[in-house]
Amino acid sequence: MLTEIAPPAFDVDIDLVYAGTANLTGRPVYRRPVCLLHPDAAACLARAAALARGLGLRLRVYDAFRPVEAQWTLWHAFPDPMYVADPRVGSVHTRAVAVDLTLADAAGRPLDMGTAFDAMTERSHHGRTDLDPAARRNRALLLGVMTAAGWQHYPYEWWHYQLPDAGRYPLLTDGAAGSRMMGPG
Questions:
Q1: How far from the centroid of its chain's Cα atoms is residue 133's Cα?
Q2: pLDDT category of residue 181 using cuts at 50, 70 and 90
Q3: Are the beta carbons of 168 and 53 closer than 8 angstroms?
Q4: Domain boundaries, the chain
Q5: Which residue, 177, 185, 159, is CA-closest to 29?
Q6: Does residue 122 carry a catalytic annotation?
Q7: Hey, which CATH number is domain 3-177, 3.30.1380.10, 3.40.50.720, 3.30.2400.10, 3.30.160.270?
C-alpha cells in the first residue's frame, strides 16, 4: 500500500509536472494528480520537510511514484538512460522510492537551482562549479536536507533523490498502486 503525499499530513507543496502538459512529453502522463510513495520513502520525505522548515524553506515535489506504464511514456519521449530509466530495467520511481523535488522559500517560490526541473543537460548534474553561486548554494542546501533525512542523490539530476538500496523494492504497475496515468505512449 502506498502513502499519499498531500497536505496537511505532509508539509510540502505538490506540483506534479507529469500531470500537465509542461513536461518533456508535451502531454499529461498521469490521469489524476496524486503523489504517492512507499511508506519508507514517505517517512524520509516527512523528515526532509521538517529539516527544510527548520531553515525557513519548503519542499516542492515534482514527481514521486511513477507506474511502469508511465515510465514507458517518458522513455518514448526521451530514451536516454542517463536521464530516463529504461522501463525494461525498471525505475526507482516505479518502485515508489524516488522523489523529484526542489526547495522553495516560505512563500512557495522555488529557489534558483541553475536549471529548470527536467533540464536533461550536464548543467543539471550535481557538483557543477560553473553555476551562479546562489544556485550552487541552493543545490547544496537541498542535498544536505535530503541526505540528512535518509535519501541518496542521483549524480545527473539535482532534483532526483531515492532511498538507498532501492532495488530491494518491487516494481509497481498502475493497477498495483491505483489509477494515475494515461497509458503507454
A1: 23
A2: very low
A3: no
A4: 3-177
A5: 185
A6: no
A7: 3.30.1380.10
Amino acid at 3: T
Of the candidates 4, 69, 122, 157, the residue annotated as catalytic is 157
Tens digit of pLDDT for each residue in 134-155?
A: 999 999 999 999 999 999 999 9
Cell representation of residue 110: 522555488
What percent of the chain is modeled with pLDDT above 70? 94
If DSSP codes are grouped into helix, strand and coil, which group holds residue 61? strand
For 1-60, the pLDDT digits (tens) are 999 999 999 999 999 999 999 999 999 999 778 999 999 999 999 999 999 999 999 999
Q: How many CB atoms lie within 10 A of CB 86?
A: 13
Helix 39-54 / helix 133-148 crossing angle, nearest 10 deg: 130
